[in-house]
Amino acid sequence: MNDENLPSDPLAEHRFEAFRQAEALIENRRPLDALKALQPVLEAEPDKPSVQLLAGRAYFHSAQLNHAEQAFVRVLELDPADHYARFVLGRTLQRLGRLVEALGQLRMAWAMNPVPEYQDALSEVNARVRLQQG
């Protein structure tokens, strides 16, 4: 049987649209609206890394840092090789003032994908840790 003959799942289509809407809302700097749009998707698919990552980004941008940390940790439980989740977890820990933990995540992110954005964040946190240590 080919895919054209399968019945469509209106709930799955609705979740897909809600996910896309939440992405657009985050891009438009409306993280609280994004979380509202994403809620049914989070309830239906809590173990999907992309859903947790998007929720984490919305929590991060709305300064709900403990929720962001939980979402990013969940992504890494599901997909330990997700360098971006490590990067944003590091940034979240940095904002929480947990610099040594942030440094560990940022180092791993940069080792997995040595892009300038990761290097800049790593250098910034490294410098702050050195300042604290005096």
Automatic annotation (TrEMBL):
The keyword Cell division does not apply. Pfam families: TPR_19. The keyword Transmembrane does not apply. Gene3D superfamilies: Tetratricopeptide repeat domain. TPR repeats lie at residues 49-82. Keywords: TPR repeat. This is Tetratricopeptide repeat protein.
